[in-house]
Amino acid sequence: MSTPVDGSGAMFDPIAPRYDLLNRVISFGLDQGWRRRLVAALNIHGPARVLDLATGTADVAITIAQTHSEVEVVGVDPSTGMLDVGRRKVASFGLPGRITLEVGDAQALSQADGYFDGVTIAFGIRNVPDRMKALREMKRVTRPGGRIGILELTEPTQGLLAALARVHVHFGVPAIGALLSGPKQYSYLRRSIAAFPSAPAFSAMMLEAGMKLVAVEKLGFGAAHLFVGEP
Q: What is the pLDDT of residues 120-139, one digit of tens each?
């Protein structure tokens, strides 16, 4: 049996049943509010189609559908295990008619140019091997005037609370992850957050991908950032 590659869909399959609990514990429950801010940043009004990349267990997809009654959501993720959990959640909320979950790659989307009114990705862009390719795909499938929202964990850099947040990321996150699930995935999480570009550097990547930068918002003393762009 081959070993799952760091950041791959197969790597996240084993932790899928406990993924939501781990997110709540590791973020002290802040992740839910951050996702709501992501959805609000899309500025959707009326009927629309939204793509949620790295949809995982479908938290963002469900939030979009619950917030906007006329929106249809396509959730894409490379992990079949996460999608299985997501489909059960979608069914439990009575939303299978409005949310479709499918295996896919953010670097090579199957949809036509301008197909979606908005695109989201939460806590997933750092796992994509070629981020620039994924950013260009997000821009390609978003219609003119639509929005692209990217929520990602980042390394806090300034202030006492930022220092405490760094301690939590480097030591608390792997320890909690190992206790509730397994050490490999959450050791990877720590490394991937530390390796993710700074907010200015990632903003520059969005511009290089051809997007117009609408907003960059620091969340949780810098433990996360919300990036909002337009094609």
A: 999 999 989 999 999 999 99
pLDDT tens for 71-118 read 999 999 999 999 999 999 999 999 999 999 999 999 999 999 999 999
What pLDDT shows up at residue 176?
62
Q: What is the pLDDT of residue 158?
A: 67
Please name each of the domains of the chain with its CATH number: 9-230 (3.40.50.150)
- DSSP conformation letters of the chain: -PPPPTTSHHHHGGGGGGHHHHHHHHTTTHHHHHHHHHHHHT---SSEEEEEET-TTTHHHHHHHHH-TTEEEEEEES-HHHHHHHHHHHHHTT-TTTEEEEE--TTS--SPTT-EEEEEEES-GGG-S-HHHHHHHHHHHEEEEEEEEEEEE----SSHHHHHHHHIIIIIHHHHHHHHT-HHHHHHHHHHHHHSPPHHHHHHHHHHTTPEEEEEEEEGGGTEEEEEEE-
Tokens describing residue 218: 């620091």
**In the predicted structure, residue 7 carries a pLDDT above the cut 50:** no
What residues pair up with 225 in beta bridges, in sequence order?
152, 218
